Every structure is written in structure tokens, then in C-alpha cells.
Amino acid sequence: IAARRTFIAVKPDGVQRRRVGEIVQRFEKKGFKLVGFKLMQASKELLREHYWEHRNRPFYNKLVSYMSSGPVVAMVWQGLDVVKTGRKMMGQTNPTNSLPGTFRGDFCVIMGKNVIHGSDSVESAQREISLWFKESELCEREGCSAKWIYE
Ligand code: DAT
Ligand code: MG
């Protein structure tokens, strides 16, 4: 079941620009299940760890500052192939290359303020979920609509 979970975060610009509702709505409409959700001011320490793979990139410090410039909404979504589909729903890293219909294609213009984060693989999803959430904060439950979404 862990392979069916992804970590999604609405970045500070997305929260300030009131895109939380629509992002949640699109994941819900698609058929994914919300199992974790919190509004929080992320510490630089957490963000440095979160973006550890980019630690040697020139944009790393700016990225960590941007991500700590206001609260983020951290979420865990569950469903079949949710990591891959979540990335498709997000669009490309650079909003210029993101198609309309994707969050980045619809909501933003530059890479440095690209509204949303989503795990890029099942392994990063597992790492990011355990970094941002305690096990007790995740609500596993039987979804009443599952039989209408899955065979
Ligand atoms: P993604 O968020 O699509 O997974 P990533 O993991 O490669 O992209 O990079 C993390 C974030 O860092 C990305 O959302 C925006 C920023 N970023 C990436 N590449 C950048 C670059 N070349 N210049 C400035 N910011 C960049
Ligand atoms: Mg990434």
C-alpha cells in the first residue's frame, strides 16, 4: 500500500494565492484518497533535508528560502499509480513547459514559484512522507467509494 501513496505540497505561493482548494479538489475528483493533510511553516532544516538531492545545485539556498517564506500545505494522497499520475497533474518543473490543465500550466509562470511539489518516484514518496508526517498523522481508512473507482 505504501507504493500507492505520494507526498504533495502546496508551496507558499500556492497557499498565499489561494490555490489549496482547487488542488485538493482535482485530486479528489480524480479518485485519489486523502490520508494526510496539514498547514505548516516548514523549518529550513526540514526543507534542506527534503531537497537534499539538490544540495549542490546553484538554486538550492534560494529554493529553501522560498519554501520557508510562508506556510505550506503538506498532503499524502493514496491511489493506484498516484505518484506517476500526481506528476502528470502537476506538469513540468518549468511552468513554461507545462500544458494547460496541469497545476503548473494553469497557475504559475516561473520555476522559482511553481506552486506545488509532488514526489517523483515511489522511493522518494516514501522518503518524503516519513520526513513530513508521523505514522500517527496518516489516516488509513476504507473509502466508501472505492468500489466505484476500482474493479
Ligand atoms: P520538481 O519540483 O518538478 O520535482 P526538481 O526536483 O528538479 O523539480 O527541483 C525542485 C524545485 O527546484 C523545482 O520545483 C523548482 C526548483 N528548480 C529546479 N530546477 C531549477 C533551476 N534550474 N533553476 C531554478 N530553480 C530550479
Ligand atoms: Mg523533485
Automatic annotation (TrEMBL):
GO terms for molecular function: ATP binding; metal ion binding; nucleoside diphosphate kinase activity. SUPFAM superfamilies: Nucleoside diphosphate kinase, NDK (SSF54919). Gene3D superfamilies: Nucleoside diphosphate kinase-like domain. It is found in: Cell projection, Lamellipodium; Cell projection, Ruffle; Cytoplasm; Nucleus. One of its GO terms (biological process) is CTP biosynthetic process. Its EC number is 2.7.4.6. Its cofactor is Mg(2+). Residues 3-140 form the Nucleoside diphosphate kinase-like domain. It is an enzyme of class 2 (transferase). InterPro entries: NDK-like_dom, NDK-like_dom_sf, Nucleoside_diP_kinase, Nucleoside_diP_kinase_AS. Keywords: ATP-binding, Cell cycle, Cell projection, Cytoplasm, Kinase, Magnesium, Metal-binding, Nucleotide-binding, Nucleus, Transferase. The active site is at H117. Its main location: other. GO terms for cellular component: cytoplasm; lamellipodium; nucleus; ruffle. ATP binds at K11, F59, R87, T93, R104, N114. It catalyses: a ribonucleoside 5'-diphosphate + ATP = a ribonucleoside 5'-triphosphate + ADP; a 2'-deoxyribonucleoside 5'-diphosphate + ATP = a 2'-deoxyribonucleoside 5'-triphosphate + ADP. It holds the Pfam family NDK. It comes from the Eukaryota. Belongs to the NDK family. Major role in the synthesis of nucleoside triphosphates other than ATP. HAMAP family: NDP_kinase (MF_00451). This is Nucleoside diphosphate kinase. It comes from Periophthalmus magnuspinnatus.
